[in-house]
Design goal:
Layout: H1 3-8, H2 20-27, H3 34-37, E1 68-70, E2 73-75, H4 77-94, H5 100-126, H6 133-157, H7 167-177, H8 183-199, H9 204-222, H10 228-236, E3 237-245, H11 256-268, H12 273-280, E4 296-299, H13 300-305, E5 324-326, E6 329-340, H14 346-375, E7 380-381, H15 384-397, H16 406-426, H17 431-448, H18 451-469, H19 475-487
């Protein structure tokens, strides 16, 4: 079933954007979301800041102190509460409690989404997109109409509708797929949902930001020009490589750089790539095969957007890179071949593939532009507690090569722990997120410590756990405190 039909099939109006772009952006917006996705399955329903547990969703208080702002875009406690509740609603229906560690990660994810919305609004204004309520409604209506047109073309290509089919025939097809709902009914429901969100002070900023983001991506999409060969190359080519991995995924990497440079010199001195791969690589090998017989397939389109791997694009088969610093540590690659995997239905679906390429390119541009704004420190923080929550999460999702050094990473964690403790003592609004961040950062420090070091950290761990238990009950944490007291 297509994304469009999946949306139509909802029995209740969807609160999501009506463009297909939203699904793409939220699943890959230049943010390393893999760490957070798993949290969605284990997070409970709690309120934050000055929003009491069980407070009415969207009950915005015009006098509440803001958490942060990006230009005219304000992140308030009620807007964050609303964002958190939307993310955790499925879990709430099935569970009653949530571990504080998961609560911290889910709160951080909700805050990062709001920050990205504010940065997106800033980008949109820079590109001349500045919507009021009427603009949003008009955009949603026109966007729905465009999506219907795209869906009709898809059905024609698939042979499910004739090219000469009427609007009524399309409507009949949709009714058959959506329990009798007409396109007009679905459109009306969409518009009413948008109007309701615009009327609510805590959801209005997100609704406007979403529409401006989608409009900006559409604008950039229209500016993408690519030949058929370029689209085929970027969407369907695969680079088949061999790689020498110098760092174990779960081991220390401090010596990996020096070893990588040593091996590169040996290869230049006469050692073959395959000999070096068998002798030095810590990468996985296939059963009953030498490491040098293993290859890895890298999508050309992914390599194209990865600054670390871009040197691969300049290689001819048989050539190798120098030492590349990847998230998995230093690597040396050798290009074996470039495979073309153009689908057999290219001629039939050429227009769809080119549209998808343009969408991907525009979305990638959005991700890159947002990353630039994040690094430019465009956020004005009014809450120290929420700031340390955000900065810690950004640190975890954007690791630097020096994080492989356990001593340096421990020092970073210590800085976060201190900043969180300071914020908890000075910022009533950010007390909860500060204490939760202090807990999670300390857990990371504790889990990396040697057994003898853990004994020295016991008193601090008990104090931090008790500070969190003062506002968030957790049986597992109480049992761990009991174990530590017994060991003492």
């Amino acid at each position: 079933m297509s994304y469009f039909l999946e949306d139509l099939a909802f029995k209740e109006p969807s609160a999501l954007s009506i463009t297909r772009f939203r699904n793409f952006i939220e699943s890959g917006c230049g943010v390393a979301v893999a760490v957070i996705v798993g949290v969605l399955l284990v997070v409970g329903f709690l309120s934050y800041g000055n929003c009491a547990r069980g407070a009415q969703i969207g009950a915005a208080n015009p006098n509440e102190k803001p958490i942060a702002s990006i230009g005219d875009f304000v992140i308030s406690p009620s807007s964050l509460d609303n964002a958190y509740r939307k993310q955790s609603s499925d879990y709430v229906r099935a569970n009653e409690t949530v571990p504080p560690q998961a609560e911290q990660q889910m709160l951080a994810y909700s805050l990062m989404r709001l920050v990205d919305q504010g940065l997106t609004v800033k980008l949109a204004k820079k590109e001349g997109i500045n919507f009021n309520d009427d603009d949003v409604i008009k955009y949603e209506e026109s966007s729905f109409d465009r999506q219907v047109a795209e869906y009709r073309n898809q059905l024609v290509v698939e042979g499910k509708l004739k090219a000469t089919s009427t609007v009524k025939e399309l409507d009949d097809f949709v009714k058959n797929q959506t329990q009798g709902r007409t396109l007009e009914a679905v459109k009306k429901e969409r518009v009413e949902t948008v109007k309701t969100e615009l009327a609510n002070p805590s959801t209005k900023p997100e609704r406007i930001a979403t529409a401006e983001r989608d409009a900006l991506i559409e604008k950039w999409q229209k500016g993408v020009t690519a030949s058929d060969d370029e689209v085929k190359h970027n969407m369907f080519d695969t680079l088949v490589v061999k790689q020498i991995q110098f760092a174990s995924p779960f081991g220390p990497k401090q010596n990996a750089d020096a070893i990588a440079q040593k091996v590169l010199a040996e290869i230049k001195g006469g050692l073959t790539f395959e000999q070096a791969m068998d002798k030095y690589s810590k990468g996985p090998s296939q059963p009953k095969k030498k490491r040098s017989e293993s290859t890895t397939a890298l999508p050309y389109g992914s390599v194209r957007w990865d600054e670390t791997l871009k040197p691969l694009l300049a290689l001819n088969p048989g050539e190798m890179t120098g030492v590349l610093q990847t998230r998995g540590g230093p690597m040396i690659y050798k290009l074996i071949e470039t495979k073309s995997n153009v689908p057999s239905d290219w001629d039939k679906k050429r227009s769809q593939y080119k549209n998808q390429y343009a969408t991907n390119t525009a979305a990638r541009k959005m991700a890159d532009e947002l990353e630039k704004l994040r690094k430019a420190n465009e956020v004005k923080w009014d809450s120290a507690g929420y700031r340390v929550l955000y900065e810690f999460s950004q640190m975890l999702m954007n690791p630097s090569p020096e994080d492989d050094d356990q001593v340096k990473f421990a020092a970073k964690l210590r800085t976060i722990i201190k900043n969180a403790a300071d914020a908890a003592g000075a910022d009533p609004l950010g007390l909860r997120p500060a204490q939760l961040t202090r807990l999670v950062a300390f857990d990371q420090l504790y889990n990396r410590a040697k057994p003898e070091e853990k004994l020295k950290l016991a008193d601090e761990r008990i104090e931090i756990y008790n500070s969190v238990l003062s506002f968030s009950e957790d049986v597992d944490m109480r049992l761990q405190i009991a174990d530590m007291l017994i060991e003492k």
